[in-house]
Amino acid sequence: MMQSNTQKSTPKIKAEVEMITHDGVMLKGKFFTVPSQRVLDVLNDDRTFLPFETEDGDIYIINKRFVARIRPIGQDLQTSKAAPTWLVQ
Fold this sequence. Notes:
The chain is 6% helix and 38% strand. It is mainly β. It is globular and about 40 Å long. The two termini are 24 Å apart.
């Protein structure tokens, strides 16, 4: 008998950032957070890889070690765009 996944999903928001990679490339895009998280919280969690959406809408899975510097772009949580539904945990 198959078990269903009863894990509740948490809606995500997109936190806009400018990211400098370890090789000096600057990328603008969004990290996915829950409303109570900051980008700093996401970078300090247990995951090694994080989804990152570029300005063009492409989604990459970024290794945290690839990131040299992040600058969150100030945005009110209420005006943040919801993340795609397939990205919920």
